[in-house]
Amino acid sequence: MSEGPATWNDALRIARLVAADPHGCGGVVVRAGAGPVRDRWLDVLRNNLSPGTPLRRMPAGIAEDRLVGGLDLAATLSAGRPVAQAGLLAEAHGGLLVAAMAERMGPGTAAHLAAALDSGRLRVERDGLAETRPARFGLILLDEGIGEDEAAPAALTDRLAFHLDLTTVPPSATRPVLPPPSDARSPESEGPSDGGARSGHDPVADLSEVAARLGIASLRAPLLALRVARLLARLDGRAGIAEADAREAARLVLGHRATRLPEREAPPEEDERDEERDEGAPDAPSPPERAESGADPEEGTASPPDDRIVEAARAAIPAGLLAMLLRDGPRLRMPKAGKAGAKAVSARSGRPMGARPGDPRRGRLDLIATLRAAAPWQGLRRGPEGGGTCLMIRPDDIRITRFRQRTETTTIFTVDASGSSALERLAEAKGAVELLLAEAYTRRDKVALVAFRGAGAELVLAPTRSLVRARRGLAALPGGGGTPLATGIDTAGEVALGVRRGGGTPVVVMLTDGRANVARSGIAGRERAGEDSLNAARLFREAAFRAILIDTAQRPQDSARRLAAAMGARYLPLPHADAGVMSAAIRSARE
Fold first, then answer.
1. Residue 520 carries which DSSP code?
2. d(CA 155, CA 111)
3. Angle, nearest 10°, between helix axes 203-213 and 220-235?
4. What is the C-alpha to C-alpha distance for residues 445 and 436, in angstroms, rounded to an integer?
5. Pick from 537, 533, 426, 541: which is nearest to 483 by CA?
6. Could you give phi then psi for residue 274, rounded to 5 degrees?
7. Cα separation, 390 vs 409, whole angstroms
8. Taking the CB of residue 295, how many other CB atoms lie within 10 A of it?
9. Is the dihedral of CA 362, 364, 368, 369 positive or negative?
10. Spatial distance between the Cα atoms of 570 and 549, rounded to a whole number of angstroms
11. Distance (Å, rounded) from C-alpha 290 to C-alpha 21?
C-alpha cells in the first residue's frame, strides 16, 4: 500500500478514536494546509461524534476574555451588576476544540489550553469575578507551518496523543465521508471478548519499555498510549488489552515521538540456550525432550511481545526523522523575520499587550477595558435609589493600551588584529560578518566592526546593513602590532552604548585570545595591560551588555576564560572555527 492511502487509513482510525474519547486522547496535531484533504478529515471527525457533542473552532489571535470567559460587558451595563459569560474553553466541554493556525499560537493561549487539558477545569479570576467551570475537551491543532521551524507549541503537542501529517495524501486517496466500520482492525487483532488474545506481559510495562527504547523522555507518551490501547479494546468489545491493541497504540502514539532508532535485541531464550550450549550444561533439555514436555517448539524462537510492539512503533517513525537521526544531527534553524531584537515597551506603537491604568494623554485609550473596569461598580455609584441611567466613570477606571515591539539588534564585532596570526582571525571575522549581513534583511539587524591593534582601537565599520560598505571596510582592515585589549573593550562599550541610546539592542562579539600586552596608556607591559583589561571588562559588565567572547588561540586559554567571566560574556573556545561555524555559534548564543 502506498504512503497516501496508508496515511489516510490511519487518519480515519484516529478520527474514530478521538471522537470516542476526546479528553482521554488529548487530541490530534494535524499537519496540513487548507484544502480538500484536511476538510474531508474534519468531516469524518464530525460524523463520528455523538449527537449533541460540541465542536468549537478557535480563531488565531483570540482574545483572552473570549477564550477563558469573564465579564459580559453588555449584560453588566444593562443590569448594573457583574454578569459573567462563559469562554470558548467552557463551551467546548465534553467535545472538541479546533484551533486554526496553531503554529502562530501565542504562549499565553497555549498555557490556558495546557492547564485545561491537565485538570479538565477552568479557573477564571478576572474583572472582579472568581469562578470555576468544567472544561474537559479534546484539542485539534491545525498546523499550517511550511518550514521545519514553524510548528505548534511543544507544550500542547506533548499532551496530544496523535500526530497526523496529511501533506502527502492526495485528494484521490481519500474515501467518502462515512463512519469507519467497527471491525476496521486487522485479523490478528481479533479475539474473544474475554481477553483471550491478551499478551502475557503487562501492557503498562511494555509501553513504558517501548517509550524508553525509542528515546521518549516525556511520561505523558506511555500514559497516552495506554489510554489509546484501552480505548481500542473497548471499541472492539474486549474487556482487557490485547497485544494487538498495544502494538497499534505504540504505532499511533509513540512512533512520531521517537528521538532515536531502537536497537533490535535477540530473544533472551536464545541467549540462554547459547550460554548453556557453550558451557556444556548436562541438564539442558534436547528438542525431543521439549516436545515430550508439551512445549511449543516454535515458542522459543518467537520474539517477546515488547519487541513486537517496538517493531510496530519503529515502522511508524517518519522517514524524515530517520534521515535526520542518521546524519550528524539536526539542522540549524533559519532566522525568522522580526525575531532578533529584544522586547521593549512602547507607548503608542507595536503589538498590543493588554491594558493598564494610566493617563490617556500619555497613551492610547482602551475604551473596552475602561468600560470593563467601571461596569461592576455602577450599582454602588448610582446610590440606593438606583436613579439615573448614565454610565459613571471615574479616573481610576481609565485604561490605556500597552504596546510591545522588538528593537533592532546590532552585532558589534570586536577583533584582535594584532600579532602574526591576525590574518587568519581577520579572515574568519570577515566571513562571519558577511554571513550575518546576508541575513540582515530577514532579521532586520545591523553589523559593526571594531579592530584593536598597536596602541589603540578604531571603529572600522559603523553600524550598517549595507553589504557593499561592509566588504569595503573589511577589505581595508589592517593587522599586526601589540594587543591593547583594554582599549578594544572600551571602544566596543562606547559603540554599544550609542546603539542602546538610539533604541537598539547591542550584542558584542569579541574575537581574542585574552593575552593583553599594551596598557590603556599605550605603554607595553603584560602585567599592567592585564590589569587594565580586567578593569575594562568589569566596567563593561556593569553596563549589562550582551556579549560573546570567542577564544581564537590554538588552545583554550585561561586568560580568555577569566576575561569572559569579568565581562559577563559567554565563552566560546573556537580556535579552528571557520566562518560558517562561527556564524552559527554567534546566532545560537545571541538567541
1. T
2. 8
3. 130
4. 9
5. 533
6. -65, -40
7. 50
8. 13
9. negative
10. 6
11. 47
Task: Give per-residue pLDDT as tens, 59-105.
Answer: 888 888 888 887 777 777 777 677 778 888 999 999 999 999 888 88
Instruction: Compute the C-alpha angle 206/211/214, nearest 5°.
Output: 125
Nearest to 140 by CA among 236, 5, 11: 11
**Global pTM value:** 0.56
Q: Report d(CA 462, CA 213) in Å as an integer.
A: 53
Read off the pLDDT of residues 367-425 as tens digits, 9 standing for 90 and up: 778 877 887 777 777 766 555 667 777 888 888 887 766 667 888 888 887 764 555 56
Spatial CA neighbour of 416 closest among 559, 312, 580:
559
Q: How far apart are CA 515 and CA 483, in angstroms?
A: 8
SS3 content of the chain, % helix, strand, coil (to 5): 45, 20, 35
The 10 Å Cβ neighbour count of residue 167 is 12
Contact call for residues 221 and 257 (beta carbons, < 8 A): yes
The single residue listed with the C-alpha cell 579552528 is: 576
Cell numbers found for residue 573: 573556545
Cell of 193: 471478548
Spell out the domains of the chain, with CATH numbers in brackets. 3-173 (3.40.50.300), 194-268+305-330 (1.10.8.80), 343-406 (no CATH), 409-590 (3.40.50.410)
- Please give the single-letter amino acid code of residue 576: H
Yes or no: say if 465 and 437 are a contact pair by the CB < 8 Å rule. Answer: yes
Q: What are the start-end ranges of the H helices in 327-460? A: 367-374, 378-381, 422-438, 440-443
